[in-house]
């Protein structure tokens, strides 16, 4: 019993350590210079020196957040539309559109978007948005179409209108599955956002690309590690919210 | 009053409910029995228009049930769905409050009503109100489902096997409570059940369905005495018939003059209970007392046996 209690604390401690480490690194990268120094050659700088890591991290997160909010809004709205009686006929069409968004490589989206909207954050947002739609849409669709039939019928039987059923029963009950889609989408976006720096978006990709151009392994590693740490922490955080929501919806969680 | 006229429901080529006509008098209970898949649930759901009929009309107090939008109609009709269908993400109290909230009752009135119903169904409002359905036993969930159907004091109540998961003691209590509510508020109830005992006990009339058709719709005594077909006879249980017949009558109606030894049986006990007591104790007669404790006379084995015989 006691041992299980201790074990349950281990992941939380690791997570906390990771958070502390991440904050320390992006706010005071100088502290970590001795660790990264061996990775550099001929006295090149070990810490990214063409901008603040903290600013880049925040901009990176902002880009992902905007793209995810937009993708969630559109994907959930689309899933709601095609699960209403009036919208069923749009299901195949929406599916193919969303699938194209996912199969079209983000790099190609960037290349196509730049002539249209110019360099910077915008093409990156478009690429992340398109790339992030599919997991959210598919999960929302699964959530909304696998609701327990007699619960939905009970809602109809009580005299709820279509809108009331959606807001009071269908969306709350599918929230855990939809959140799962958002989680996948966010993690994909966190990694994908790095390529935005090829079109001058200010993301952590800048650090990696600078490292590649100047053959500086320390840059590549610190850029990659910050993105990875962000992904792990956000994945964990969203999983916890998902489990909490599932419990609140009266669903058993393993 | 509920008038069902020539109601038919077809899914593709299969006819699930086949030209059913019946009238349910106001302030009475109609019980629908029949084998699994005979169309009981479908018939019930056409009354509150969860299912739209292929043909036919249903009138509630003279008005076509299509004269209101479906959701408004359903707020005015209590519906206890087969297998409770509680909202898993809402507390017991919130589940029961569903229709009152939709109708815009004020919070104090809703709380009063929820507490009243929970108390009636022996669920302490303090302890059970804030719980979620998955924290309840199957029988408790079912009672919450019935309470939810009753919450807005509907005039018409549709109940689809509402007592199936209850143990015999609580089921008995739930049946008595429902009868009391029905008497007090004059509710018109249509109840689906697989339990013939329940049908005979609760029903002012019993409707027997077979493969989508209404094969007999009559008072319990008549269904027992003159089953319309071999199917009905099997359904009511041929060997149970005399006992079911006795369970319909009260002891006071079988009283003979005279006295007998031993503990008296109350006049409003069922004749079946009286016969069981006589057979069990091996006596030929039992004294009968009224509600005030005064002796009314006696019941005898011979008298009861005559009453249990086929009226034909
Ligand atoms: N939406 C539907 N589409 C096609 N067939 C259906 C549909 N709903 C019900 N049925 C069929 O109609 C028949 C009657 O179903 P119904 O639910 O009314 O039966 P029931 O008498 O309530 O049975 P039970 O006692 O098992 O609850 C069944 O054969 C069922 O498969
Ligand atoms: Mg049924």
Automatic annotation (TrEMBL), chain A:
The chain crosses the membrane at residues 12-32, 59-82, 103-120, 126-152, 173-197, 217-238. Residues 57-238 form the ABC transmembrane type-1 domain. Pfam families: BPD_transp_1. CDD domains: TM_PBP2 (cd06261). It is found in: Cell membrane. It comes from the Bacteria. Keywords: Membrane, Transmembrane, Transmembrane helix, Transport. The keyword Transmembrane helix applies. It is a multi-pass membrane protein. PANTHER family: GLYCINE BETAINE UPTAKE SYSTEM PERMEASE PROTEIN YEHW, GLYCINE BETAINE/L-PROLINE TRANSPORT SYSTEM PERMEASE PROTEIN PROW. Belongs to the binding-protein-dependent transport system permease family. This is Glycine betaine ABC transporter membrane subunit YehW. The gene is yehW.
TrEMBL record, chain B:
Signal peptide: none annotated. The keyword ATP-binding applies. It holds the Pfam family ABC_tran. PROSITE patterns: ABC_TRANSPORTER_1 (PS00211), ABC_TRANSPORTER_2 (PS50893). The keyword ATP-binding applies. InterPro entries: AAA+_ATPase, ABC_transporter-like_ATP-bd, ABC_transporter-like_CS, P-loop_NTPase. Residues 2-236 form the ABC transporter domain. Keywords: ATP-binding, Nucleotide-binding, Transport. Belongs to the ABC transporter superfamily. This is Glycine betaine ABC transporter ATP binding subunit YehX. It comes from Mesorhizobium ventifaucium.
